[in-house]
Amino acid sequence: MKFSDVIGQEEIKARLMQMCDEDRIPHAMMFCGPRGCGKMALAMAFACHLLERDFRGGVIRGVRSEECGDFRGVRSEECGDFRGVRSEECGVRNALSAEDYSPSSLHTPPSTNENQQEYSPSSLHTPPSSNENPMLANMRHPDLHFTYPTIKLPSMSSDYKPVSDDFAREWHEMIMDSPYFTMDKWMRAIGAENQQAIITAGESDALTHKLSLVSSQGGYKVAVVWLPERMNIECANKMLKLIEEPPSRTVFIMVSDEPDRLLETIRSRTQRIDIKRIDDESMVRGLIEHRGMGEEDARRLARMAAGDWLKAMEALDAGGENGLFLDMFRTLMRLAYARNVKDMKKWSETIASFGREKQKRFLEYFLRMARENFMYNFGNPQLTYMTREEEEFAVRFARFVNEKNILQMNELANRAIRDIGQNANAKIVFFDMAMQMIVLLLQK
Predict the structure, then answer these.
(1) Which of 35, 91, 332, 412 yields a CA-CA distance of 20 to 30 A from 135?
(2) Which residues contact 40 (CB under 8 A, 6 or more apart)?
(3) Burial (CB count within 10 angstroms: exposed 0-12, middle 13-18, buried 19+), residue 15
(4) pLDDT 10s digits, 293-337
(5) Which DSSP letter does residue 214 get?
């Protein structure tokens, strides 16, 4: 995973690179931002960049080793200036002379091989592909650790606390498929769409053990924590202690959708990096390069996605949720217009068979389509954000959404979202919603 694999976000990439160049790498960071902006992709790319520099012999001097044993370009208050000086505290003597460690040599470690290639800072950013660390290419580096929400399987004992390693195969398959994914995709991957996934205290214990071991490559150990807000209180307290007293040369990268749900004490001990939505030009380039789209279609989709790469991918997936929700929305409106109560009952039973989270996503889609069809009536393309298929339906349907019913449609969907969230009977909720749509479409 490289920075070049991340869609857009050039400003954040430059900031992370600068951290490395200036040797100011925080021991704990938190990546925050809206859905689909690429938080996890950036975290994975940055983690790989840190470990790749170790692999290629790059010098990163920002984190002091507890043992002061790795003094490649490190000046430590405990050890003093190591140029030919023996530290009373660490017992480390540099066998080379002070002249060998001139300021310029701090960036290029001395080599006994005169023909060995010297690596400039720019070459460390973009190492030759032929020398890429195969462990990082496969996301199986022994110093790269992932923590993520898990569930308790029926085969697990009642007192067992699930850990990330229990689902390592499913996790690896998902991140290798794409670094852009959602909680819903992860839940489907582990076959638990209707369960609540959390990070347990068993995971914090397992991570503490992993990070206590010496780095297998002699460099950084990187822990990427996806959705830390899903830690239970016991896990959060143990994680806080781990962040307060981190093992030597360890970097924590947290990727959070809802940072306000985290303990204030954890938030205060991390450096927060806010990531914006992907800009339209980067989105267009990404769609053209990665999906082979024409420029006109790419621009339409980028505008509709509004900086959300996941939303753009869902729109491209004809068999995905976006296509399914559009079909369900069209069916509801046609049945309501025809006052076909019998088929409306079948419609409500169909959507009631979805999981509750999927039902809420459909209702959110309903709200968006109501808004888009209302705005379509103004005849200004700059006000609407629809796919080609959605716009084709709006041409005929938009006139039924007006100032007399748009607010009631909005209230109807929001009330349904509330009821579904409170575990109301989904068949009753959606059949009631369908029946009320008959009345609302008559208001012109």
Answers:
(1) 35
(2) 31, 179, 180, 181, 226, 255
(3) exposed
(4) 888 888 888 888 888 999 888 877 755 677 889 999 999 999 999
(5) P
- In angstroms, the CA 210 to CA 39 distance is 24
Partners of 221 in the beta sheet? Answer: 250
User: Average pLDDT, stretch 109-127?
Assistant: 39
Q: Are the CB atoms for 222 and 144 separated by under 8 Å?
A: yes
> What is the rounded distance in angstroms from the CA atom of residue 398 to the CA atom of residue 260?
38
The model's confidence at residue 111, banded by pLDDT at 50, 70 and 90, is very low
For residues 398 and 345, the answer to whether their CB atoms sit within 8 Å is no
Q: Which of 87-101, 282-296, 382-396 has the lowest mean pLDDT?
A: 87-101
- For 173, the 3-state DSSP assignment is helix
Tokens for 198, please give them.
């959390």
Cβ 216 vs Cβ 184: under 8 Å: no
164 vs 204: CA distance, rounded Å: 10
Helix axis angle for 388-397 and 356-376, nearest 10°, is: 60
Rounded CA-CA distance 341/335 in Å is 8
Contact partners, residue 345, CB within 8 Å, separation at least 6? 431
Question: Mapped to the 3 state alphabet, what secondary structure does 286-353 carry?
Answer: HHHHHHCCCHHHHHHHHHHHCCCHHHHHHHHCCCCHHHHHHHHHHHHHHHHHHCCHHHHHHHHHHHHC
Report DSSP letters for 92-114, one per residue: ----S-GGGG-GGGGTS---S-T
**Cβ 211 vs Cβ 242: under 8 Å:** yes
Q: pLDDT digits over 128-142, tens only?
A: 444 567 888 888 899
The strand pair at 28-32 and 250-256 is best described as parallel
Reported as a single tens digit per residue, the pLDDT across 147-197 is: 999 999 888 888 899 999 999 999 999 999 999 998 888 988 998 766 788
| Token pair in block for residue 318 | 């004809």
Distances (CA, A) of 161 to 100, 234, 372: 53, 11, 46
